[in-house]
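Q: Got a minute? One more chain.
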Amino acid sequence: MSNWDPMNYLNEEPTPQCLLRVKKDIAEFNAQPPPRLFISPEESDVTQVHVLMLGAPGSPYEGGFFQFFLKFPPNYPLSPPRVRFLTTDGGRVSFHLHLYNCGKVCVSTLGTDGGPCDWSPAQSLSSTLVSIQSLVSDNMYSVDYVQYETIRVAVCDQVDAALKEDAKCPPAFRKVILDSFLESYSKYEDAIKTRLQTGSKLISTAQYEKLLTRLQSLKEKVEQKKEAEAAAAAAAAENEN
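A: Always. Here it is, folded:
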């Protein structure tokens, strides 16, 4: 059993001290959320937290929607939370040397990088997520590869899941994803068209063309959804009057 994987510890019962500290961390996060970070704790167990992280502007990860799942251990904050990276296309894509395609997040803060664990009880949910967030800005792979997979997996797949209201996309994240997608759309399309003009040694023209078609189709679907929601809201308001 992988001791880093939160999925293996879902049935762990938190101690009263753990629960108190987790609720404090969540309240502090909600009071001052770090930029491009969103959380959605499970209603039935707040020690299980879904995380949405947006890729840093100016990086190949820009505009990507990266999901993580976090579980606090019973002795938190004496031990760090366990974290799994979920945006891997079913284990087929690795976005960073420290974000494995199996979902393992390798950072010293969590004690998962093979060296000494840098965890301190003074650290919190916010500080933990910010340290992980730095990975989704510091590219160690080919820019072409990361940018392509970001748009394919961390944008298109995530938008598709949000549109379908898939369980893989927590309800709290769906509006964030769809709104951010429309706001950033021109950047996604420009990035693909630039690669189509300049070419890439790693990604074929056919792959970029297929991705562009998918991106444009998703934009149309998101806009249709927004229009339907606006019409429904207007009709509801009219009925109230």
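A: The domain at 6-240 is CATH 3.10.110.10 (Ubiquitin Conjugating Enzyme).
Q: Perfect, thanks.
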